[in-house]
Amino acid sequence: ILNQAVSGRLYSCNSVEQKIYVELNNTVPCVRLLNATHQIGCQSSISGDTGVIHVLESESDLEWPLSKGPNPPYMVLLESSLFTRSIMMKMKNESNRVAGVAVVVPNTSPPEFSPHTTCPNENTGVYSDNYGPNLAHCNTTVWNPLGNGLSYEEFDFPVFSLKEDNETEFIKQCYLDHNRAVNGSDPQYPLCAMQLFSHMHAVTNTPTCMRRNDINFSINPGTQTMVCDPLGDYNVWGSIRPYNDTVFGHKENESVVIAAARLDSRAFFWEVSTGAEGSISGFVTLLAAAQALREVTHKAPPTRNILFAFFQGETFDYIGSSRMVYDMENGKFVIDLDNVHSILEIGQVALHSGTNLFLHSDPVSRRNNTVNDEVKNLVNNLQSSTTGLSFLLVEPNVSQPLPPSSLQRFLRAQPIPGIVLADHESAFNNRYYESFYDNAANLNLTYPSDFSPEEQLEFVTETAKSLTDVATVVARALYKQAEGDKSLVNTIKADPKIVRLDTLASIKKVLGYLGLHCFVFFCLLEPSAPEYYVGVAMSSTPTRLVQYLLANLTGAATNLTQSQCQKPDELPNESRQMYSYLWVQGVVPPNSTQRDSFCVRASVRLTKAVSPAFELGEYASKDYSTWTESRWKFIKARIFLVASRDLEMLTLGAGVAVLFTSLLVTYFISTKADVLFSSTREPASAAY
């Protein structure tokens, strides 16, 4: 050890702590979220929670950590197949013997898993005791029957996810070497233990944590200690014809068709939400449809404007859509609700089995003859747009409510004709709704095993082909709904390259600007795929990606220099009030060292996707989302060998004995110092 210490001192910093602990780097925690009434999620104690590792092999094996094991508390390591509501609730009820849980997330998916509720956003949609009470709370249709509700439970111990990699194998080997009982005998010390740190600052609910945000606990003047933050980001929107973004409110003689999709997703663990079917399938389809409309709308502009809206935070009680509706109602958006002619929302569309996609509408608002007639017209425009394609669009056979959708928030404010396009007639086809398994494998996005990366770039998967067809239908229907030139409808076709990969030079340039090399479904196959959890950091990676892609797909490249792109108002024919100007650095072309940069002019904007509850200070609101995320100091996980309690007490006792002995010796020496340390001197010489 001495040699190692010397070597460490000479060549690297090798501390005692590093010799004791093995840090785990590939972990993701479950964190605490709060709303108007309660808190959900997980947390550790302020000093972290420590327990002896027990690898759970079956549900019956729970007896060891919950009652039989002699060395509580236990840190339970379990495979994802055992990450069920039954097991988690049993451990929650015996939390005095469970220090924490570590879930191994495998590279393959289980048959089904959804930690969300069976009725998503049931309290903030349009259906209530006052509006379609027989349709409220999923009384007629349970949209997510596989939901086990784990994401909305509160656990008093930390829960972390581990990847199926070398770190996890090391933990399991440590367990086998030290903790596994042999021949019925108890394991002998030292035992392998794990310590998890994920202490959350916020408690109780959103009103409590927001009130504490206003109290300055810091001893440093001018510094405020925050304990939670509202969930939020930005909505991305763009229109065929630009609007002056300084002139808000109603536009006379203006009629707008809104095409909408959601951007976000979530999972049980913080920031591991991929949302392949749940969100990406919808907004990628809408992006492709927007690109398909660019040429025809320039050639023959439709009578009505088309506004593409990508909403953030929809998973958490419709944050983005409720904010846009609020802004429209209060004269803070470029149009108001009276300008909205109709809405077409793209939901989950990648898992349609057979030949049908489904057109969902609201049966309550359709009791109004005017709304009903316009819904029928939108249905007809959609159904007649499938010419030459391999599927049909049909309405559900039974009267049922809208599935969870942004359209519900618009209907809460005003009876607006609208359709939600989805791949399910009733319950979701998505077996992994709002879980980390809603990924590329869920959509069967695979490439031939012998393909090189370059060949994969050129390969169009069956899923991409299917979504391209859906985008074509959406684009045609929007053009019809906006009263475009009917003779040009069949010329509208989506480009599979938009849905497929970043083979288009324009998309490559956008991704190069952002420092990313993947997007859409191929991105889900990459380790660097962006996360779609809305979070609290404004302008997240998905938001910026969609902003730049929508601008690139619907806007126009200009000859402006970088300085002109940053200050376009100084030029006579440019206006930042009408357009956004985005400088795209692009990628480095072959045989070149300079990036192929250019300036894009587009009518694409960002508007806040933060719940109106925080704008109004109504933290206990029942009308708007009140979700916040707790702050924390740090997240950490590590393992180490722990000695027996007897040995620890013996060591402590020996240390205390040495301490008191040293104090007694010091006291004795101090009191006898004049004797112990006196020096004998020669007597002074007599003077005569």
Automatic annotation (TrEMBL):
A single GO cellular-component term on record: plasma membrane
TM segment ranges: 649-669
Keyword Cell inner membrane among record annotations: no
Keyword DNA damage: no
InterPro entries, A to Z: Ncstrn_small, Nicastrin
Keyword annotations of the record: Glycoprotein, Membrane, Notch signaling pathway, Signal, Transmembrane, Transmembrane helix
Membrane topology, record value: Single-pass type I membrane protein
One of the protein's GO biological processes: protein processing
Cited Pfam families: Ncstrn_small, Nicastrin
Domain Nicastrin small lobe: 29-202
Family per similarity comment: Belongs to the nicastrin family.
Name of this chain's protein: Nicastrin
Gene: NCSTN
